[in-house]
UniProtKB/TrEMBL annotation:
<dbReference type="GO" id="GO:0050661">
    <property type="term" value="F:NADP binding"/>
</dbReference>
<dbReference type="InterPro" id="IPR020626">
    <property type="entry name" value="Asp_DH_prok"/>
</dbReference>
<keyword id="KW-0520">NAD</keyword>
<dbReference type="InterPro" id="IPR002811">
    <property type="entry name" value="Asp_DH"/>
</dbReference>
<protein>
    <recommendedName>
        <fullName>L-aspartate dehydrogenase</fullName>
        <ecNumber>1.4.1.21</ecNumber>
    </recommendedName>
</protein>
<keyword id="KW-0662">Pyridine nucleotide biosynthesis</keyword>
<feature type="binding site">
    <location>
        <position position="123"/>
    </location>
    <ligand>
        <name>NAD(+)</name>
    </ligand>
</feature>
<dbReference type="GO" id="GO:0033735">
    <property type="term" value="F:aspartate dehydrogenase [NAD(P)+] activity"/>
</dbReference>
<feature type="domain" description="Aspartate/homoserine dehydrogenase NAD-binding">
    <location>
        <begin position="10"/>
        <end position="120"/>
    </location>
</feature>
<dbReference type="InterPro" id="IPR011182">
    <property type="entry name" value="L-Asp_DH"/>
</dbReference>
<dbReference type="GO" id="GO:0016639">
    <property type="term" value="F:oxidoreductase activity, acting on the CH-NH2 group of donors, NAD or NADP as acceptor"/>
</dbReference>
<dbReference type="Pfam" id="PF01958">
    <property type="entry name" value="Asp_DH_C"/>
</dbReference>
<keyword id="KW-0560">Oxidoreductase</keyword>
<comment type="pathway">
    <text>Cofactor biosynthesis; NAD(+) biosynthesis; iminoaspartate from L-aspartate (dehydrogenase route): step 1/1.</text>
</comment>
<dbReference type="GO" id="GO:0051287">
    <property type="term" value="F:NAD binding"/>
</dbReference>
<dbReference type="InterPro" id="IPR005106">
    <property type="entry name" value="Asp/hSer_DH_NAD-bd"/>
</dbReference>
<dbReference type="GO" id="GO:0009435">
    <property type="term" value="P:NAD+ biosynthetic process"/>
</dbReference>
Amino acid sequence: MKSFSLGMIGFGAIGRSLVDRLNKDTDGLDLTITALVRHAPESQGLSNLTFVTDVEALLRSKPELVVECASQEALAQHGPAVLTAGVDLVAASIGALSQPGFEQRLESAARKGAARLFLPAGAVAGIDGLTAAKLAGLTQVTYVSRKPPNAWKGTHAETLCDLDSLKDETLLFEGTAREGSRLFPKNANVAATVALAGLGLDDTRIKVIADPKVDRNCHEVEAEGAFGTLALRLANFPSPDNPKTSFLTILSLERTVRNRWSRIVI
Ligand SMILES: NC(=O)C1=CN([C@@H]2O[C@H](COP(=O)(O)OP(=O)(O)OC[C@H]3O[C@@H](n4cnc5c(N)ncnc54)[C@H](O)[C@@H]3O)[C@@H](O)[C@H]2O)C=CC1
Ligand SMILES: O=C([O-])CC(=O)C(=O)O
């Protein structure tokens, strides 16, 4: 039986669900998983899952791929070490790349380790088309994030409005993808994904909205360029364990991991 060693950084809503889903069908592989967490739980009940608390221990497990699904801070803290060690990395907290110089740091770590950093679509879609369209020139890309008020709890939004008493949609932020993904690190990684695929962090305009009239995490992307036009709207179910995170994010990471061992990659 072929084996596959998967590393993870973070084991919250995305991490738990990703492991459950991969374990339901390992495509005939002997899958072992090592997850880097802040505090290892006393017991976890899965025979193929080990918790570690430092990146050196994660790397000692000889992962063939590491998935970061923790936070922008965790990607900044551990991403360069993983890549320098020659291990490919899939990052969910893509907004971290809006920190000045961090994208370059990751690139140089990846070059040093001959590894690659993968930026998955996560909660959004159309990233393949957008980044292909970029090759012939884009003139405009806009992104709107619209989530129910409870998705904005515990974020910068609470300093802007009383989320519990919102009656109408409320604009929390309008500006560049760079600023928006920094202000809302748990909610606006998609802004950075759209920007990196398309016009860049400083030329992609975004709006961030709390809307009591929706019960889904909605993402709208519009783009224009030499390819034509694109208009995309997603109304994602939130993940059962974290209202900020769309269920589609977990599926996107699952697809990225499965692509790693698939013979046909789509
Ligand atoms: N690209 C995308 O479309 C999306 C990206 N995300 C990113 O994924 C992250 C995780 O999402 P969820 O699992 O829903 O959040 P969560 O809050 O349920 O779980 C995150 C886990 O990571 C842990 N963690 C945070 N920093 C860490 C560190 N430095 N070292 C070790 N563990 C650390 C936390 O303690 C927590 O257990 C979000 O914060 C966001 O950055 C989330 C949704 C969509
Ligand atoms: O999961 C979502 O809907 C989007 C999200 O949290 C992010 O972009 O960070």
